[in-house]
Design goal:
This protein has 467 residues and is an alpha+beta fold. It has helices at residues 13-24, 27-52, 59-62, 65-82, 90-107, 111-130, 136-180, 184-207, 220-232, 237-259, 265-287, 308-322, 336-343, 345-362, 386-402, 430-446; strands at residues 326-333, 368-371, 376-382, 407-408, 411-412, 417-423, 452-454. It has 3 domains: 11-171, Orthogonal Bundle (Globin-like), CATH 1.10.490; 184-287, Four Helix Bundle (Hemerythrin (Met), subunit A) (Up-down Bundle), CATH 1.20.120; 305-454, Reverse transcriptase/Diguanylate cyclase domain (Alpha-Beta Plaits). It is built from 16 helices and 7 strands.
């Protein structure tokens, strides 16, 4: 089989430069540096983390125990691959650095932190090479080779980082604009009602001697504002005013009303005034909203997978900053292929819409529901611990199994679904969380379907009894 010359991809500039550096560096010099890595890689990694853990910008990405363990091992492998005894393959090195740079973009680790880390490694390698007592030419060649190899690696990483970040920004903006176009009148009325409901419930508790501990930020409106409203209206000055007004209600007005009985009329009036201000500012935000892009799955009306990195990345960042949990459910419709094969794709589409409708009904307004694949959905449950996620998964599973409302061509279609559950454990790359949920889903399906499985390896039947 021959290959058309036009299909052969030309090596990148970085790959050509890297190949040139490797081929022009004498084998004994490469062997010297490889030997230094063999002997001192652990010391290099240790120094790298000692310094960066004291860096305020780097510490949030490195301090988690899971990340710490994985990244230490990964950095050691990276050094060994970069400075292997055999001449490394430049094309493989480029691919590796591109993957690392893309991961840095997903994690949103600042690029200057990576540059700082590279500088630390080069300094440490200089010390170890100096200790070998090489003659002048050999010493210079070894130092130049070590530093140039790291510099090219960082250049390739940085390019991939910039490309990934640019794509992320574009998707973020597209999601924001799409969200603004999502049945904006319904969204406005829903949040208006949620705000009004909290105000009435709180004041009734106060006036009739109740002990309300429910803050506005913990209400349905508060959850929506924190996880969706702040994204939908990102950059609008009104959203900052709303957020500060909510903080004022929770930190000043609510404590005053709870602690003083009977509640002072002026305090009640102040609370009503604050809620009216929030209501007014939200109206202004919704009035300026414009639908400019459709980012929903046309069949199920759930979010497009395109926006998954944006939302998951933001929830990871929010969780790391505020130490609040979140979980994801991977939902797979059981035996969906046989439905398509036996009853046709029209019936299959009806099943997909049916499951999506149940997901929407069983989840909160602050949660996110994505069409992940052909018959798969991914549900992001904001501010949800593992035990809560299990309860929600079981509730959805039961609703899908027991609901008999799906009838197509006078045929009752019985539908079940399997679930993989994963709770955020601190790794800043959201792909690890998706992989955990995927593995859990695989185990649920392997165990007989119509059940859920938690990513920690704990298997539970659909009736909730652990094996």
């Amino acid at each position: 089989m021959t290959t058309d010359a036009s299909e052969v991809q030309e090596p990148s500039i970085a790959e050509q430069e890297w190949q040139g550096l490797i081929s022009q560096t004498p084998a004994p010099v490469r062997e010297i540096v490889a030997g230094v890595i063999d002997q001192h890689a652990v010391d290099c990694v240790q120094r790298f983390y000692e310094v960066l853990l004291n860096n305020a910008d780097a510490a949030p990405f490195l301090s988690n125990e899971i990340v710490d363990t994985r990244l230490r091992a990964a950095l050691g492998r990276w050094l060994a691959e970069l400075f292997s005894h055999d001449a490394p393959d430049a094309s493989i090195l480029v691919q590796t650095q591109q993957k690392i740079g893309a991961a840095h973009a997903r994690i949103q680790i600042p690029i200057h932190v990576v540059m700082h880390g590279a500088r630390l490694l080069k300094r440490k390698l200089r010390v170890f090479i100096q200790a070998l007592g090489l003659d002048g030419p050999q010493y210079s060649a070894a130092i130049a080779y070590a530093e140039d190899m790291i510099d090219i690696a960082i250049e390739v990483m940085s390019l991939a980082f910039v490309q990934g970040t640019r794509k992320e920004v574009e998707v973020n903006e597209a999601f924001r604009l799409m969200s603004l176009g999502k049945d904006i009148s319904l969204e406005r009325e829903t949040q208006r009602a949620a705000l009004l409901e909290w105000g009435q419930s709180f004041l009734l508790d106060i006036c009739y001697g109740g002990d309300s501990a429910n803050t506005l930020s913990d209400s349905a409106f508060g959850l929506w504002l924190r996880h969706k409203g702040s994204v939908l209206f990102q950059g609008a000055s009104e959203i900052d005013v709303v957020s500060k007004a909510v903080e004022h209600v929770d930190n000043v007005l609510v404590p005053k009303l709870v602690s003083e009985r009977p509640a002072p009329p002026q305090a009640i009036k102040a609370l009503q005034g604050a809620l009216e201000e929030i209501h007014y500012m939200m109206d202004q935000l919704f009035k300026t909203a414009e639908a400019v892009e459709n980012g929903r799955d046309p069949l199920t009306k759930t979010l497009s997978r395109r926006f998954l990195p944006t939302i998951l990345g933001r929830e990871v960042s929010l969780s790391l900053r505020r130490h609040i949990p979140f979980s994801i459910l991977m939902v797979d419709i059981d035996h969906f292929k046989s439905v398509n094969d036996k009853l046709g794709h029209v019936v299959g589409d009806s099943v997909l819409r049916y499951v999506a409708k149940i997901l929407v009904a069983q989840c909160r307004m602050s949660d996110f529901i994505f069409r992940y694949g052909g018959e798969e959905f991914l549900v992001l449950l904001t501010e949800t611990q593992e035990e809560q996620a299990i309860q929600i998964a079981e509730r959805i599973r039961t609703a899908i199994e027991q609901n008999t409302a799906l009838t197509v061509n006078e045929i009752d279609i019985r539908v079940t679904a399997s679930f993989g559950i994963a709770t955020f454990a601190g790794h800043p790359d959201y792909r690890h969380l998706i992989e955990d949920a995927d593995r859990a889903l695989y185990l649920a399906k392997a165990a007989g379907r119509n059940r859920w499985h938690v990513s920690k390896g704990r298997h539970v039947h659909s009736d909730g009894l652990a094996e």
